[in-house]
Design a protein that fits this description.
Layout lengths: L4 H9 L18 E6 L4 E2 L14 H8 L2 E4 L4 E5 L2 E2 L1 E3 L2 E9 L2 E2 L14 E8 L28 E5 L5 H12 L4 E5 L9 E5 L18 H4 L3 E3 L6 E4 L5 E5 L4 E6 L7 E6 L2 H9 L3 H4 L4 E5 L2 E5 L7
Parallel strand pairs: 1-9, 10-11, 10-12, 12-17
Antiparallel strand pairs: 1-2, 3-4, 4-5, 6-7, 7-8, 7-9, 13-14, 14-15, 16-17, 16-18, 18-19
Helix pairs in contact: 3-5
Length: 310
């Protein structure tokens, strides 16, 4: 059952400031904290180097590095550096956080920061997707450090294991010293594995079930969908409206998640050319701080999209 926005906001923001940090114990190493707004479009810079002193929770890490205001007796994050949740242009906006590219399922004060974690807070319109279960903008997470402290096996599932797109994706992960198994696309994959599906949309759609992009952002958290024949990729804005279309050579890199299962990543497109374009963009610089990315003749397009039709 998907949580309501009110319940989700309660979970994500729940914290009593007096107890928001752990304090004692060694500080985690190689931690990253990113704060953005509008689906990663704008970064809120921190005031100086990241402060990590002793054991920290997601909330205490935030409060040590940004100006944070709360409401309802400290039960919600009201603002970060003066940027509040609430209503904007008639749409609901709020703060949400991700750990290693996976949206949180419990309160920030109850989530311990581990070495290597990438914590990402973003303030965005949730009118079309009360929850975005997984994003690509923390790459190479969650492949390096996993989900909730567990590093998971990685399977690159391809329409053609010998094809250039499949080889590119597997090579990019292996270059980061991430063990990768390459296999054919299956309906369910290996339980407990992080899956990366590499194929044209027509070869992926049936493997996703309830995560399918055809159900819209409310189901998948991805602001894009394919036409019935898979040959057109429609890019959606934050209101869920189709504002652009990619046809021949259109690619997509996105992630989604069903319940407590590991995320599923998609390196897909309208055709083989689009898949190869997406595979070539499977890197840190293209994906950084993006919820999902479409690829067209003009380059990478962050999603949600607000541009004119292509």
């Amino acid at each position: 059952m998907r949580p309501t926005a009110t319940a989700l906001a309660s979970v994500l923001g729940a914290v009593v400031l007096a107890g928001c940090g752990l304090g004692a114990g060694p500080a985690p190493s190689a931690v990253k904290l990113v704060v953005t707004r509008d689906f990663g479009a704008h970064v809120l810079p921190a005031d100086g180097p990241l402060k990590v002193n002793g054991q920290v929770t997601v909330m205490s890490l935030l409060t040590r590095n940004y100006r944070v205001a709360t409401r309802e007796a400290g039960g919600f994050v009201d603002s970060i550096d003066g940027l509040s949740g609430g209503q904007e242009a008639g749409a609901p906006v709020d703060w949400f956080y991700f750990v290693n590219g996976v949206e949180a399922t419990k309160g920030a004060a109850q989530t311990t920061v581990r070495s290597g974690d990438r914590i990402w807070w973003d303030r965005h319109d949730w009118s079309q997707a009360e929850t975005v279960p997984a994003v690509v903008g923390s790459f190479p997470e969650p492949f390096l450090n996993g989900v909730e402290g567990r590093r998971l096996a990685v399977r690159v599932e391809c329409a053609s294991a010998a094809g250039p797109a499949c080889r590119t994706v597997a090579a990019r992960l292996r270059a980061l010293r991430i063990p990768v198994a390459v296999a054919a696309i299956t309906a369910s994959g290996a339980p407990g594995s992080l899956r990366v599906l590499v194929a044209p949309w027509t070869g992926i759609a049936n493997a996703l079930g309830e995560q399918s992009l055809e159900q819209g952002p409310r189901a998948s958290g991805v602001y894009a969908r394919f036409s019935a024949n898979g040959h057109t990729l429609m890019l959606l804005n934050q209101n869920g409206q189709s504002v652009a279309a990619l046809r021949t050579g259109g690619g997509l890199i996105a992630a989604t998640r069903q319940g407590e299962e590991p995320p599923v990543w998609l390196v897909t497109g309208t055709d083989e050319r689009g898949v190869q374009l997406a595979a070539g963009a499977f890197d840190r610089s293209t994906l950084r701080d993006r919820f999902a990315v479409a690829l067209g003749r003009d380059g990478a397009i962050p999603l949600p999209d607000g541009t004119a039709s292509r």
